[in-house]
Every structure is written in C-alpha cells, then in structure tokens.
Amino acid sequence: MNAVTVTDLVVDRGKRRVLDGLSFTVPPGQVTGLLGPSGSGKSTLLRAVVGVQVVRSGGVTVLGEPAGSPALRSRVGYVTQAPSVYADLTVRENARYFAALYGRGAKEADAALAAVGLAGAAGQLVENLSGGQRGRASLACALVGDPEVLVLDEPTVGLDPVLRVELWARFHALAAAGATLLVSSHVMDEAARCDRLLLLRDGALLADATPAEVRAEAGTDDLEDAFLRLIRAREEVAA
Ligand code: ADP
Ligand code: MG
C-alpha cells in the first residue's frame, strides 16, 4: 500500500489556483523529496497531506485513511516551516510535553533530543535558541511520537552543512526502519539525497521519479540543470 495517495488535488488560496490537479503516490519506507522554488505550492501540498488545508476538489489518503482523520493523529508527524515549539518552555520540557501527547515518556523525549543533536541544550529555554536549534527542537517534537509518516516542511533551512548532512542521514535511518518521509526543500542540491523526487512548479508536477530517472530524462547529471531543462521543455509544449 502507498503511504500517501494524492488524486486530482486542486487547492485555491484566495483567487489563486495554488495546486492545479496533482496526482501522485508516495511509496512507504522511503525518503521522498518535494522540490520546488519558493511559492510553487510545497507548503500548501504538505498541509493537504496532513489534512489541515481546505481543498477545492480531489483527495488525499494517508496510510489508507482520509488525510487529517483522527485515526492518523499519532501515526503522522508534521514539522511546519516555522518552528512550532513553546518559547517559554525548555527544550526538554517541549519534548516531554509532545511525548505525553503521543503517549510516550521521558526516555523517548531524551532520545529524540539526542537524535537531533540537542541533548546538550535540553535545559535551555527555546526563546534563547538559535533559529537552527529551534528548527531541530521542532523536529525532535515530531520524532518523539515515532510516527509512521513524517512530513517535514523545509527542515534543513538555516542549518549548517554538517548538521544538514547529519539530518539527512537521520531521515534515511528512519526510512530504513520503515518510516515514510516526505521532505520539502527549495535547495536543489538536496534532491540528490532523496530516494524519489516530486518536482513542483506553479502548483503542477514537472517530475515524479527517482533522481536517476530525472537525470536520464533531462539528459544531464546535474539535478538543478535537469530541473531547468524540464521547465523549458514544459514551456515549449505550452507555447
Ligand atoms: P511554497 O511552500 O512552495 O513556498 P506555498 O504553498 O507557501 O509555496 O504557497 C503557494 C502559493 O500560495 C504562493 O503563490 C503563495 O503566495 C500562495 N499563498 C500561500 N499562503 C497563502 C494564503 N494564506 N493566502 C493566499 N495565498 C497564499
Ligand atoms: Mg513553504
């Protein structure tokens, strides 16, 4: 069974059509990257996957259930683009609070903090953290419930290169353990780190394939260049 199935999804925000009839599936146990420039609709699509986005038509199922249904609450983790942790709690208090929501304990909270490299900052108030640390605290709070599907909206923005590499290794370890990850990024050099790619532009999919398939289709080894060629090919068809 696919972890996520999106069918003919149309989303309008205000007068704009933001997602224009998307259909794709996300296979389980893999890291799928949602790549696209700013404003292409990544966050809107991820919101639809977790069931918080009003959609005009079409549908999304996650683990066989309609997106957002109560049965999915403990099975789907979501890390928003803006870190969603409590500024006036410590890092550890945040992790323990989310652990309690998911029916987990202090042990799991500490493990999640260690996994994102925040064990040393556990006693600090979130308001005193750097942006990158806040993002990681937010990620730890999603990891603490050990979700089957993890939806991450630009989780590596603002991280130094070492932490970025560590985080991608962490994503692959989670996938190897059976989790499904859907990770958005506007940085094309992260595309190569994904098992599958969804290339989004102006609310439409330019590609839904492995990085190797995208390279082969575009006839270039550079994924950023491949993305540009796919855009040009699409525009020629449209013209
Ligand atoms: P991305 O995450 O790829 O940057 P978004 O999903 O945030 O893209 O936005 C897609 C489009 O929807 C953009 O053109 C943006 O201007 C528009 N949009 C985003 N949020 C809103 C909103 N609250 N109201 C109206 N339009 C919005
Ligand atoms: Mg976004």
From TrEMBL:
GO molecular function (one): ATP binding
Keyword Cell membrane recorded: no
Domain of life: Bacteria
KW Nucleotide-binding (keyword) present: yes
The protein's name in its UniProt record: ABC transporter ATP-binding protein
UniProt entry keywords in alphabetical sequence: ATP-binding, Nucleotide-binding
Lineage: Bacteria, Bacillati, Actinomycetota, Actinomycetes, Geodermatophilales
SMART domains for this protein: AAA
InterPro entries: AAA+_ATPase, ABC_transporter-like_ATP-bd, P-loop_NTPase
One Pfam family of this chain: ABC_tran
Domain spans labelled ABC transporter: 4-227
